[in-house]
Write a structure and sequence with these properties.
It is a single chain. The chain is mainly α. The chain is about 90% helix and about 0% strand. The chain is built from one helix and no strands. The model has no long low-confidence stretch (mean pLDDT about 70).
């Protein structure tokens, strides 16, 4: 009976560790994606600003 309890607890720990690792990997991927979007928005805004200052560019 004790071995059954130990096996169930061990299985629960392994499953929790697997799901916890997957969750943190997804979170890191989301953070990286957010950083890339912020960088793209910053570059786009810079191009718009440069276009306005010079009177040219792709947005007039």
């Amino acid at each position: 009976m004790t071995w059954v309890v130990v096996a169930v607890v061990l299985a629960a720990v392994v499953v929790a560790a697997c799901f916890g690792g997957a969750r943190s990997r997804l979170r890191r991927a989301g953070d990286r994606d957010h950083g890339e979007r912020a960088e793209t928005a910053r570059r786009l805004q810079q191009q718009i600003d440069e276009g306005r200052h010079t009177g040219g560019g792709w947005i007039s």
